[in-house]
Amino acid sequence: MQPVDDEPAYLRIGELSRRVGVSAELLRAWERRYGLLSPTRTPGGFRLYGDRDERRVHRMLRHLETGVSAAEAARITLAEQEGAPAGSADVSLPVPLADALRPALDGFDEVEANAVLDRLLSAFALETVLQDAVLPYLADLGERWGRGEASVAQEHFASAFLRGRLLGLARGWDGGLGSRALLACAPGDQHDLGLICFGLALRGHGWRITFLGADTPLETLTEAARALVPEIVVVTCTLSSQTAGEAGLRALARAAPLALAGRGATPGLAAAVGARYLADDPVTEAATLAAAGS
């Protein structure tokens, strides 16, 4: 079997199953019966699946929800992708579905929030869910909290819920043979959800992720960079005071290629310490980084 359009294949069947919410047995059946998936084989004989396979499964699920048979859903899915430009993105989420997270999370309804997120992940690619639902909700929540329209309890509940679900999706994201990214929040910064979204999106492009999380001392991060030799280190900071000074960042930039993101980072600071500045949203920046091969 050959990969389609030379897209990289890096997922084992179990990881693909976890991402799309479909059992490995059913995925194998769809591959065998309908040719839905196009894995490549490693020298050791293992099947590896890529982004195109994941997109096909999500499209298959959407068509199944309309009530058509599995055979028809597979036929439509394959016809759609044959006629679409290579690498074309999934459509955006319908607005009501994207907004569905807000009442569930604002209302402390964990059961409904889980149900909403499950529906999103079963119907759309993870990157689409992150960019069109999770990140907009977090931005809106932050703005409402700043205006006093959302309580501390609501912010803590939503953050804890999303962190738990996203880190569940991140399980095993350091596996594979791709480039490695080392991710951490600056000293004093507890806001790691955007960084987790960035890591998940970058993992979708085949990168391996080492995540150190919130409030990471720069000395610790520099030691990790020297030990792991990552292709890039990404540090996020919410406030400029959380970057812990230019000297520490310069030392880190000497240990490995460095990128800065977050409201506390600026193009001037990045230039001063020899770092790359990430100004766009996490999913877009992940795609840009992966395309550049940095």
List SSEs in N-to-C order: EHHEEHHHHHHHEHEHEHEHEH
Order of strands side by side in the largest beta sheet?
A: 5-4-6-7-8
> Might you state the CATH topology name of the largest domain?
Rossmann fold
| Structure classification | alpha/beta
**Termini separation:** 29 Å
Number of H- or I-type helical stretches: 14
Report helical residue fraction.
55-70%
Low-confidence stretches: 1-6, 83-92
What coarse outline follows from CA principal-axis ratios?
globular
Number of strands: 8
| Overall radius of gyration | 20 Å
* Residue share in β-strands: 5-15%
What is the count of structural domains?
3
Which CATH class of the largest domain? Alpha Beta
> What do we call the CATH homologous superfamily of the largest domain?
Cobalamin-binding domain
CATH architecture annotation of the largest domain? 3-Layer(aba) Sandwich
Question: Please, what is the average pLDDT?
Answer: 85
User: How many strands, what sense, and barrel or not for the largest sheet?
Assistant: 5 strands, parallel
